[in-house]
Every structure is written in structure tokens, then in C-alpha cells.
Design a protein that fits this description.
370 residues; alpha+beta; conserved putative lor/sdh protein from methanococcus maripaludis s2 fold; Elongation Factor Tu (Ef-tu), domain 3; Helix Hairpins; 6-stranded antiparallel barrel; 4-stranded antiparallel sheet; 22 strands; 36% strand
Length: 370
């Protein structure tokens, strides 16, 4: 009997303990459910408005910098380098002597030709004096004149050959690296030095044939290169090729730019914006306000719900050109529409938000409190 009583007391005690635990847990669950049932506090966001700006339409392309004049200077005749009259990087004028080849044989040949020409001239003059006296025939006079003309022509030929032993700058420009040394034998066509005229300078680029109607000679261009970030160069379209490449369906365009400090070098990769003369009004937003998605770009537009509270809703947009951190929105927004400026990943459609006061306004409030 006593054992049954003890078991009964144990069961009663356990029932009370477990009942208390279950009751407490049930109370906690009710409190948690009530907490979740309460509306979540609004998310603080920074906002911006779609603004209207006047942008000058521009077509973006890539190309290469090209010298106004640029060649590798080479020798027309073979020979041994007698003297070098330049150093790498020199700035030269047209006609400046760059290099002389050994010309001893050519000078001797010229002396021989001149002596022959003097003798032919004397013979021609003597026969010319005798012709009026009929002491010589007309055929003898003609032969003497032909011999004199031929001798003079051989002198001119030798002088031209001798002049090719002196290599001169073909135009004003800046020299590259010297590629020959004194005493070196140069076969015909050996590269001696590169020379480029760098001011003005060209930028050649290509455009799709569908964009050909958007470009005309005289349009302004803005060029940037990777080597000089943040430094734009301005110029104008100077020529457009007369044919379209049938394989790529592109057309070559050339712009001419001033380059007084020689910052642009031939061969540089260039990004080119070709600007059209007229301006157009566009709706713009900061780049951070747009979420770029494979299935379409969108923004979170800030609107009031039926209770007058601010909520965000997704709005699909079509974007266009990007300039200085702002994006042109061609469809989906109107001027003065308010959108979330940044931090879009933490938001969902229909979520309550509150707009963060701009730093200037916060500072003014703090000063007033102080």
C-alpha cells in the first residue's frame, strides 16, 4: 500500500513539473507569436529623385592613336655608316642630317663624271664655233652636243647617287630609338630610326554601318587612353572612309587632335566618344540606384500605401548611356520620381521604409539642439 502511495506521489510531482514547463513554453510561444504579429519597423534608406538633364548625344567606340606622319627611316643605297648625327628621342626638323654613309667611291666617280663633262663641253664649244664657217658638218655638231648632254646627265646621276649617302629627316618630328651604329654595314632598306610627327595626331576607330548616319566630319570627339586616366583629349572628326568593310560591316573614321605636350603616342588604345551637335533631355539617376539583372534592370520606387506609409515597389526600367556616375533612363520613370539611392539587395517589394535625412539636414538639427 505504501509503495502504491509513493508511486502516486511521484506521478503527481512529475505531472506538476512537466505541466509547469509546458505551460511556460506555451506562454513563451504566445509571446513570440504576438511579437511577430506586430508590424516590422521601417527600413531606413537613402533616397534620390529622377532628374531631367540635357545631354549631348554621343557614340562610343574604340580605336588606336596614329601619328600624323610616321615612318621608319631607311637607306636607299647600301653602305658603311661613317657618322651618326642624332640621338634617340631627338626632335628634328625636315632636312636635318641623321646619318652619313661612306661615300669615297661615289665622290671619286663624281669627279670622273665632271671631268668627262668638261671635256665634252669644250669639244661641243669648239665645234659650235666652227659650224658657222662650215668647217664641220651638222652631224658632227649634233654628235658633240649629244655627247655634252650625256656627260652632264651622268654628272647629275652621280650627284643624285652621292646625295643618297646622306640620310635626312623627311619631315619635322620626334625620333625613336636609334637602331644603327657607326661602322655598321647597312644593306638597302635597313631601318635606322623611327620618326613620328606627334602634333597634331590622329585617332582611327570604327563604327557599325548602322551608326554611320550619326557621324559627320567636323563633329567633336572626346578621347581617353588607359595610360592617362581622367585626362580627356578633344578633337574633331576629320575623315570618314568611303566604303564599309563587307566582312565586319564597319566603317573607319579618323579624328584629328591637338597634342602639344606629346602625351598621346602612336599605337595607344583609345576610347572615343563622337558627340552630335544637338542636345536632348534625358531622365537620369545615380548608377547605385539601379539594379542590373539578367532578366531586366529595375529600381525600387518609393510610394505611399493606403495607410499613408512609405513603401518600396520594384519598377522595371530601360537604361541608356552612362556619364559621370549617372545613367540615362529611357523608360520606366518620370521626372521627380523618388527611388532608393543605394542598398537595394536588402529590400523587397512592399516593404515599409523611412527616408534617411541628408547629412546637411542632420548637421543642422544637431546644431539647433546644441
Amino acid at each position: 500500500m505504501r509503495t502504491a502511495s509513493r508511486f502516486l506521489l511521484v506521478f503527481v510531482f512529475l505531472g506538476v513539473v512537466f505541466g509547469g514547463i509546458f505551460g511556460y513554453k506555451f506562454y513563451q510561444f504566445g509571446q513570440l507569436k504576438a511579437q511577430f504579429a506586430q508590424p516590422q519597423p521601417p527600413v531606413v534608406v537613402s533616397a534620390t529623385r529622377a532628374t531631367a538633364e540635357r545631354w549631348q548625344p554621343a557614340k562610343k567606340a574604340v580605336g588606336s592613336v596614329k601619328a600624323f606622319n610616321g615612318i621608319e627611316v631607311a637607306n636607299e643605297v647600301p653602305g658603311v655608316v661613317e657618322s651618326v648625327h642624332f640621338e634617340s628621342g631627338d626632335v628634328v626638323r625636315q632636312g636635318d642630317v641623321l646619318l652619313r654613309l661612306d661615300a669615297a667611291i661615289d665622290e671619286a666617280s663624281l669627279s670622273t663624271r665632271k671631268a668627262e663633262a668638261v671635256l665634252a663641253q669644250q669639244e661641243y664649244q669648239r665645234i659650235a664655233n666652227l659650224l658657222p664657217k662650215r668647217a664641220v658638218s651638222q652631224s658632227q655638231f649634233d654628235e658633240a652636243k649629244a655627247n655634252f648632254d650625256a656627260a652632264q646627265a651622268r654628272v647629275n646621276e652621280s650627284e643624285a647617287q652621292l646625295s643618297k649617302k646622306i640620310i635626312r629627316a623627311p619631315f619635322d618630328g620626334t625620333l625613336g630609338l636609334r637602331m644603327v651604329d657607326r661602322g655598321q654595314y647597312l644593306p638597302t632598306g635597313t631601318a635606322i630610326v623611327e620618326i613620328n610627327m606627334l602634333d597634331p595626331i590622329y585617332v582611327d576607330y570604327t563604327l557599325s554601318e548602322k551608326d554611320l548616319g550619326l557621324v559627320r566630319t567636323g563633329y567633336d570627339v572626346v578621347v581617353t587612353v588607359a595610360a592617362l586616366p581622367g585626362q580627356p583629349f578633344t578633337g574633331k572628326v576629320s575623315a570618314i572612309n568611303t566604303s564599309v568593310n563587307p566582312e565586319t560591316r564597319t566603317v573607319r573614321v579618323r579624328a584629328t587632335l591637338a597634342n602639344p605636350d606629346k602625351a598621346l603616342k602612336p599605337g595607344m588604345f583609345a576610347t572615343v566618344l563622337t558627340r552630335q551637335p544637338e542636345q536632348r533631355e534625358v531622365v537620369t539617376l545615380p548608377q547605385t540606384a539601379i539594379s542590373y539583372n539578367t532578366y531586366g534592370d529595375y529600381v525600387f520606387r518609393i510610394e505611399e500605401d493606403d495607410q499613408g506609409e512609405l513603401v518600396v515597389n520594384r519598377a522595371a526600367v530601360t537604361t541608356g548611356e552612362v556619364r559621370d556616375g549617372r545613367v540615362a533612363v529611357t523608360e520606366g520613370l518620370q521626372v521627380d520620381d523618388q527611388v532608393v539611392a543605394k542598398g537595394l539587395l536588402r529590400l523587397r517589394a512592399g516593404q515599409r521604409v523611412s527616408i534617411q535625412a541628408p547629412p546637411a539636414a542632420v548637421s543642422a538639427v544637431e546644431e539647433a539642439v546644441q
